[in-house]
Amino acid sequence: MADNEKNIRQKECLKKLRHDIGYNQREISEKLGIPLRTWEDWESGRRAMPEYQLRMMVYYVKLTFSYKKDGFHSVNIIRDEKGNAIVVINDIRFKDRQNIDWYAVEEYLYEYVGENVEILETADIVYIGNDFPKEVKGSEDTRRLKGTNAKAKANATTETIGLLQYATNKRWQENFKSKHGTDAKYGWYRFTSRFALPVYSTEGMLERYNIYRIEMLVRHASDDKLYLYDMVNTKKEKETNTPSQQ
């Protein structure tokens, strides 16, 4: 088997294995004691492991890992004083607020391509296609973001599924751009999601959470399906010291 074919086969095998148990790349790398970058290289097809090692890993994972119930994505939720959900993102993957590497964000988002997510409030099923990572990286909304809002959007992408699941306030707008005549033939929907990012002291102690709003921009395509297109209008909302855990 050619090296390229081997890498592709292993890539698909590892991605399916991870999705079957409901883990993201960081979770499975930590569970297996494998450096995250190594797992990312394997799953992207940049590197391949020996075939016997792959067989042993698949056997071990299927034998010992607990599958997440009904394939439902595990989301850490807090509630505000009105009982509204806020997705907590404690794993800050993109740390530099001045120079976000949006190419790294795009590469990360490709792990979500092919997923479909049910929005709990409306029961809408939203698909994630190949256009989503590219749009997040290069959209006008992303280009205009600076500082903490840019860092917030970048890290919000790591909980794309959770933000979709707990999105609210569905509203529709007509499509006026001819370039979207097919992929948004039936218009656009916007949903509001909220998320919290931790703020730490210089001593590394948790001081508070900054809470943000973000809009999940969804296109209604000619195939009558809904597709996530971008995450836009990131805005800091407020801070909380003692959120209520769900």
Please describe what this structure looks like.
- The structure is a single chain.
- This protein is of the alpha+beta class and 246 residues long.
- 35% of the residues lie in helices and 26% in strands.
- Strands 1, 2, 3, 4, 5, 6, 7, 8 and 9 form a 9-stranded mixed beta sheet that branches.
- A hairpin with a 5-residue loop joins strand 1 (77-79) and strand 2.
- The longest helix has 19 residues, at 3-21.
- The protein is globular, with a radius of gyration of 19 Å.
- The N and C termini lie far apart (50 Å).
- Mean pLDDT is 85; it is low at 68-72 and 241-246.
Considering the chains and any ligands shown, give keywords for the structure.
single chain; 246 residues; alpha+beta; nine-stranded mixed β-sheet; 9 helices; globular; disordered C terminus
Write the SSE topology.
Layout: H1 3-21, H2 25-32, H3 36-44, H4 51-64, E1 77-79, E2 85-88, H5 102-109, E3 116-118, E4 125-128, H6 131-138, H7 140-144, H8 147-156, H9 160-165, E5 168-173, E6 188-200, E7 206-220, E8 226-240, E9 244-245
Parallel strand pairs: 2-6, 4-8
Antiparallel strand pairs: 1-2, 1-9, 3-4, 5-6, 6-7, 7-8
Helix pairs in contact: 1-4, 2-3, 5-6
Radius of gyration: 19 Å
Order of helices and strands: HHHHEEHEEHHHHEEEEE
Average pLDDT value?
85
Instruction: Count every helix, treating DSSP H or I runs of 4 or more residues as helices.
Output: 9
Task: Please tell me what the overall shape is.
Answer: globular
The major pleated sheet works out as:
9 strands, mixed
